Amino acid sequence: MPMALEAADTKKISNDSAVLDIYLPPERKKIEGGGVPHVVAKNFSIYYGEFEAVKKVNADILSKYVTAIIGPSGCGKSTFLRAINRMNDLIPSCHTTGALMFDGEDVYGKFTDEVLLRKKIGMVFQKPNPFPKSIYDNIAYGPRLHGVKDKKTLDGIVEKSLRKAALWDEVNDRLDKNALGLSGGQQQRLCVARTLAVEPEILLLDEPTSALDPKATAKIEDLIQELRGSYTIMIVTHNMQQASRVSDSTMFFYEGVLVEHAPTAQLFTRPKDQMTEDYITGRFS
Ligand SMILES: Nc1ncnc2c1ncn2[C@@H]1O[C@H](COP(=O)(O)OP(=O)(O)OP(=O)(O)O)[C@@H](O)[C@H]1O
């Protein structure tokens, strides 16, 4: 259990992996080579027209660790997540101010290549959304789009991605079958595999288990633990138990404001902000 925190310590949490590591519970291994700021928000706001849905967020998302985003409905969790790989660009009224950096580059810079950005920062949505194609073609789709044509290479990518997503053993004898024939949980793992096939650095998971039953949810949570350390993972979830099970740090949003960002073990046991405490203890939802 973490020792009592000085106020000054919490200021360092999002910037200093050593501080994060100190508050990792024993069952969560420190990740060698991880913990450097991978995504950095500086006074970053997101607007729909005049409405400021995400307000001047300052945060560092640490590489190879799992960051959960929690908060009541409509507080800006998905808006913030979708901004990271510019999915919000598809909404004409949406614009941003301040800065969002990925690997030290301005995500919203004039010369940012959005296709390349989305290759490096993949996303999995609330509802599994496989293409109405074979399991194989779902996985091969992204690599083909990025120029991989050789059949052997594609075969290798398909197998590797399905193995990483813990799905290979369940589907290797029916790769040519339509992906829509899989169960919901399998479809969601397929979507993770499809994202992994183009070798991203970051996985954005937007309530990835909200449409799944408890068994399928547990498999996705196990998968997140498997992928932890290889990818920077950000997960939006309404489920606080899930946030505390799978994540290393947690961001709590309220009405577009990032109220608190702290190591998960600390945020759920010793929140700094009264609002965080009220939320995690169920005084409002
Ligand atoms: N396309 C849009 N156009 C206008 N306003 C939007 C749009 N999408 C979201 N909003 C508004 O932005 C705010 C933040 O929404 P967002 O979906 O990011 O919240 P959330 O925390 O993810 O909510 P939930 O938990 O219900 O999914 C809300 O007030 C919402 O109504």
UniProtKB/TrEMBL annotation:
Ranges of residues in domain ABC transporter: 39-280
Keywords for this protein: ATP-binding, Nucleotide-binding, Phosphate transport, Transport
GO cellular component terms, semicolon-separated: membrane
One Pfam family recorded for the sequence: ABC_tran
Keyword Magnesium: no
PROSITE patterns the UniProt entry points to: ABC_TRANSPORTER_1, ABC_TRANSPORTER_2
Highest taxon in the source lineage: Bacteria
Gene Ontology molecular-function annotations: ATP binding; ATP hydrolysis activity; phosphate transmembrane transporter activity
One BP annotation, GO: phosphate ion transmembrane transport
UniProt keyword Transferase present: no
InterPro entries cross-referenced by the UniProt entry: AAA+_ATPase (IPR003593), ABC_transporter-like_ATP-bd (IPR003439), ABC_transporter-like_CS (IPR017871), P-loop_NTPase (IPR027417), PstB-like (IPR005670)
The protein's name: Phosphate ABC transporter ATP-binding protein
Gene source species: Chlorobaculum limnaeum
